[in-house]
Write a structure and sequence with these properties.
The chain contains 40 helices and four strands. The protein is mainly α. The strands form two sheets. Strands 1-2 form a two-stranded antiparallel ribbon. Strands 3-4 form a two-stranded antiparallel sheet. A hairpin with a 3-residue loop joins strand 1 and strand 2.
Length: 899
């Protein structure tokens, strides 16, 4: 029996119920479900086409050559991207479920009329008729019906996107002349010309102005549905501020700096809707188009191929038999799944459905088990190599190559997971929790042999990013092709087909090599005479190897086509793929297709693309909405004034500014995606941080870390709330445990701000002469040849944070070898702070003395090393004392045995 056979594991219905309670997403069937699948697959195909071909949409057809459909501009691409997200958002998320304040008051009013006038009274009947009509138009109480209002919003969304495609010349002209120069509505819709006088003020507005205003409102409505009302209100407040911020008196204390020049609605709409620098289609959406979506697809393909369960089993096989093994395995499995899914909530529920029951069964409290899962799942967003969507925004905002972001984020991420691991271990020792029986786990060697191909895409991604130094988009695209090729080969492999599969692949390889050698093209191109001419054997071989992905896919498909009943002994698709294969085969009236290898492979591709689109919807809506905030800051010229205000509030104290940033990140991030929190706070606070000399990349990572912490911070700890639903535990206590386990995630950012060597950043020699974003660089191997930098800037701070999180674990758990008293917990906390971020306490003390007029100072290298040494000695003494205390009960127990 393997670990995932546990009878305590939650059913898929339970998992869906927990996710439904949190995400409030529709469960559609019939035509609506088909529409979601078709639109989702089209969305993914569009994005894959962009990744492969760029902004020129074309296809290569034998004999006919290259057929070009369109050559699109960035604004058009972004508009199509957001429109796909809007349409899917209106399909998947209801506008109302009838349980809101307006609906409940209407129901009460109808009941009151029943009591006062009677159910047959004309007023009562008319009221109920109006209510029924409104419910039909807007309300979906069971999360299973697309309403007429949703259809209207989808149509208008498509209309807005169509304008970017059909009238882009007019948009370009309006960029110079303003929206007023656009065609009026009645000129676009000529049938309105006879009644133009009845349109009132609308007749004077340009069609572009109307579409832009409606487009911003559509984004706000999709935000309310897919993200939260909280975010919609924040974004809407910024739009209102852009129009009426000039009313703030310039001479008012503090808030006077928020006064802005008067702006008309036409100028605001033009900057928010027809701009690729800021606004709805600004940098965040551009990053989603170029990077985020393709990595979401990468995760979806891995998940649907069965990699999720394979990695969970691998984690349990590696650590399951150790003390507290189930929780340690949960950390490994959840960290990996979190980094490819990018959603701490979905990962908490899906992975936790398996890991949490096993942790509970082994002896962990339900709240602690849920806290471990939520903490590790949220940490996946800061774990290289994939990380979450915000990591790609860091690439764009800081102009830092993604490989360097990976390098900088690696040590803090390892420190975080190591810290959670230590806390879990101390809790296991404290509660005397053992591991699982080996019979419940898979054999790790045979498990790796049967699923090694799941590791290949991760290795290839790192190879393309770090070794080949390809762009993020190209690396993700090549890795996606590799996943498709591997899964196709494995799906076609069995004892009966391996000779056939190898033979077909060999024929294709040799044929392609000869075609490249003789004609300079592939087999089809050589046959149709489209080659460039003979080339050298080396060039032909290189071209053939470059197409291995395509050759592998062709070999697998041809093998499955000739042996349709092939069942791979080592590939197990996700349950969602098997269910989709059965349901679609039944829909087609050919149930036997569900066991057809080629058909199941096709369903896997379609389900992966649909799943990727579904996962991307809240991300696309989030980046579109959040982009409005930097758009308002840009169009209003608020940026410099805002930096001045923040510096004034901080009083020149970096420590206070960091604390303000951390608290703001946690508060703003409650109940919102990390991506949104990051975009908003980077726009508001990052310039103020860098003005204090904080490295640009470190400042962005600092904001990202605290945005992630918001997912597990009470009272709105969404990931912890999801974990409590799986663990059947108290939600608030689960949030407290998750936050406690992630406490090192809150201290490590302060550490790497004060000691940038922890994130492997080094100040350039001529930094003072350079712009802020260029003053620091990611270290190279040659930098470690400098002993002064390698030892004092990197080695000692890194060792300090690793030892510091052990001290922090003792503080949180209250147990190491034996119980830790309250006084000792305080001492462990002090040693943790001194080891991890000694400059934090000293800088804060200098700030206080400066305010009192007693003078300040700076943290010198000698002071930093001295405080770390004090922290290390204190930690060693406390650990030694605790170990002696832990040995006494063991000796007493050993001495009592003979009696």
């Amino acid at each position: 029996m393997t670990a995932h056979d546990s009878s305590e594991e939650l059913s898929e219905e339970d998992v869906d119920e927990v996710l439904q309670e949190i995400e409030r997403k529709r469960s559609l069937r019939g035509a609506a479900a088909v529409a979601v699948a078709v639109i989702g697959i089209a969305f993914s195909v569009f994005q894959m086409w962009l990744a492969a071909k760029g902004f020129v949409l074309s296809i290569d057809v034998p004999v006919l050559g290259t057929i070009q459909f369109a050559s699109l501009q960035l604004l058009q691409i972004n508009a199509i991207h957001v429109t796909f997200g809007l349409v899917l958002a209106f399909l998947l998320y209801p506008s109302s479920t009838g349980d809101g304040p307006l609906a409940t008051r209407s129901i009460r009013f109808a009941a009151w009329l029943d009591d006062r006038l009677g159910p047959e009274h004309p007023v009562t009947r008319a009221t109920r008729g109006v209510g029924a009509a409104l419910a039909w138009l807007f309300v979906d109480p069971d999360f299973d019906r697309v309403t007429p209002f949703d259809v209207v919003l989808m149509f208008v969304s498509v209309l807005a996107a169509a304008y970017f495609i059909t009238d882009f010349d007019e948009i370009q002209r309006m960029r110079a002349l303003g929206l007023e120069s656009g065609r009026p509505i009645q000129e676009v819709f000529t049938f309105l010309d006879p009644i133009a006088g009845l349109l009132g003020p609308l007749a004077e507005l340009s069609y572009a102005m109307v579409l832009g205003a409606i487009g911003v409102l559509l984004v706000l409505e999709a935000t309310r549905r897919a993200i939260s009302l909280y975010l919609m209100v924040i974004v809407a407040a910024f739009v209102v501020y852009a129009r009426f911020g000039f009313l703030i008196p310039q001479g008012a204390a503090y808030v006077g700096v928020l006064s802005i020049p008067p702006l008309g609605w036409d100028s605001i709409i033009q900057n928010l809707w027809y701009n690729t620098e800021n606004g709805v289609f600004g940098i965040p959406v551009t990053v989603s188009v170029q990077f985020i979506y393709i990595f979401i697809l990468f995760g979806a393909f891995l998940e649907m191929s069965g990699a999720g369960q394979w990695f969970i089993d691998l984690a349990y096989a590696a650590t399951g038999t150790r003390r507290g093994g189930p929780a340690k395995a949960s950390i490994l499995a959840s960290g990996f799944m979190g980094t490819i899914s990018g959603s701490s909530i979905a990962n908490t529920v899906t992975t936790g459905a398996f890991t949490i029951p096993l942790m509970k069964r082994s002896g962990y409290r339900p709240e602690f088990a849920g806290g471990v899962e939520a903490s590790a799942s949220s940490g996946g967003q800061i774990l290289p190599p994939v990380m979450g969507a915000a990591a790609f925004l860091i690439v764009q905002y800081t102009a830092t190559p993604f490989r360097e972001v990976i390098v900088a984020a690696t040590i803090p991420a390892i420190v975080f997971f190591f810290g959670v691991w230590v806390m879990v271990h101390f809790e296991a020792v404290k509660q005397n929790i053992g591991g699982l029986d080996p019979s419940e786990l898979v054999d790790i060697r045979s498990h790796v042999r049967s699923g090694w191909f799941y590791l290949v895409p991760i290795g290839l991604l790192l190879y393309y990013l770090i070794i080949e130094r390809l762009s993020v988009a190209r690396s993700a695209w090549f890795t996606l092709i590799a996943i498709g090729a591997l899964i196709t080969l494995v799906a076609a492999y069995s004892d009966e087909t391996r000779a056939r599969l190898g033979g077909i692949f060999a024929v294709l390889f040799v044929g392609t090599f000869l075609a490249q050698l003789l004609a300079g093209a592939g087999i089809v191109g050589a046959i149709t005479g489209q080659g460039t001419g003979a080339q050298s054997a080396q060039a032909a071989f290189a071209a053939t190897v470059g197409g291995l992905g395509t050759l592998s896919i062709l070999a697998g498909v041809l093998t499955l086509a000739t042996r349709p009943r092939t069942q791979s002994p080592i590939l197990s698709f996700d349950d969602a793929v098997d269910e989709a294969a059965v349901s679609t085969a039944d829909m087609l009236g050919r149930s036997e297709l569900a066991s057809n290898g080629l058909y199941r492979l096709t369903v896997f591709l379609g389900k992966s693309m649909e799943s990727g689109a579904r996962t991307a919807v809240p991300v696309v809506i989030a980046v579109a909405a959040a982009g409005i905030i930097p758009g308002v800051i840009s169009v209003s010229g608020l940026g410099p004034n805002l930096v001045a205000l923040i510096r004034a509030v901080a009083g020149g104290s970096l420590v206070l500014l960091l604390l303000v940033t951390a608290v703001a990140s946690v508060i703003l991030g409650m109940g919102m995606p990390t991506t949104v929190t990051y975009i908003i706070l980077v726009s508001l606070l990052a310039p103020a941080l860098t003005s204090f000399g904080v490295p640009l990349l470190a400042a962005h990572l600092f904001i990202l870390y605290f945005g992630v912490i918001a997912d597990i911070t009470p009272p709105v700890a969404v990931a912890a709330y999801a974990a409590s639903g799986v663990a059947k535990s108290d939600a608030f206590q689960t949030g407290i445990d998750a936050f406690s386990l992630s406490l090192n995630k809150a201290i490590v950012p302060f550490a790497f701000i004060l000691s940038p060597g922890i994130v492997l950043l080094r100040r350039r020699e001529n930094a003072d002469e350079l712009p802020i974003r260029e003053q620091y660089r990611v270290v190279q191997l040659s930098d470690f040849a400098d002993p002064g930098f390698a030892v004092f800037d990197v080695l000692i701070p890194v060792l300090g944070v690793f030892v510091g999180v052990v001290a922090l674990a003792a503080t949180v758990i209250g147990f190491v070898y034996g119980p830790v008293s309250r006084l000792e917990r305080t001492a462990f906390a002090v040693s943790s702070l001194l080891l991890m971020a000694p400059g934090l306490a000293v800088s804060g003390l200098f700030d206080i003395t400066g305010l009192l007029g007693l003078g300040g100072g700076e943290v010198t290298l000698v002071m930093d090393l001295g405080l770390r040494a004090v922290g290390g000695v204190l930690f060693a003494l406390l650990l030694l004392k605790n170990r002696q205390r832990g040995q006494i009960p063991a000796e007493q127990s050993a001495g009592a045995e003979p009696t």
